[in-house]
């Protein structure tokens, strides 16, 4: 799909947040499997269960290089652009996905910031239409706020209480 070049990128801090998230998920998974493996040894469960837990522990370690490379791929391939008529999103390295969301179909725009994103000063913009939901992750807070207001203005969304 050859469309206009999308030049706006996510924050370069996105890579750090995604790497930290991948490491935390791997450590959590290994802890859970470790506890289950310890319980299986302590409670003398059948040998096949122990081997299963051992394999579940090895699996994340084998995938760790991919977990560290994936955030760089995500960052390098995520683009977005906003015009008066459309919100354009592009993502994906192996399977490239282009979303073209008409401003007239946007019903709701939300800015979210969890604890990890807050630590790095990042936010995620979520846009909802009647049939789907889209997001632009890992934007600096000031850019996210401006983008949210711009999308809301072009989509003619009025804040409650006005």
From TrEMBL:
The chain crosses the membrane at residues 15-42, 48-69. InterPro entries: YdbS-like_PH. Residues 75-151 form the YdbS-like PH domain. The keyword Calcium does not apply. Keywords: Membrane, Transmembrane, Transmembrane helix. This is PH domain-containing protein. It comes from Halobacillus campisalis.
